[in-house]
Amino acid sequence: MPAVVDGDVAMSESLAINLFIAQKYAKGKLWPADEKGQAKCLQWTLWAGTELEPVAYGRLSEVLFKKETERDMALLADLAEKAKPLVAVLETALQSTPYVCGNAFSVGDINVACVMEYLVRSNFDISPWPKTAAWYKACDERPANKKTQDMRAAAMKAAA
Asked: Into which CATH architecture does domain 34-159 fall?
């Protein structure tokens, strides 16, 4: 379970932790300096957590925690159908800006990409949405993300 303690603040929930860290330590960088950008970070983070994550995590848990022969293929197909209009919302947003909160990479992108990764890991094909696919690839290939993925892989290997 992701958790953080920073001074007298103790919290869980990865998306909220990301917002907290960005607000405290990355103002004007990952946390936009302007109210419009900040509002977009909040909007997209809540969208990721409330709209996309239930569908994306539903698919991921079916793929990750069950043997291929035990997976509920009807459920995976149903969740894929439910994911399509959600990815279309993201695709529409990315028509006018390269990132979810505007012209600069932000914690909003981190939070949405983290949840999108559940879809990608569950073999959901995002290529029909070219802006989303390019955005996700750019997020996934960021050096900080690569470092985080390497750390996660090492921790999983050590736990096995």
From this structure: Up-down Bundle (1.20)
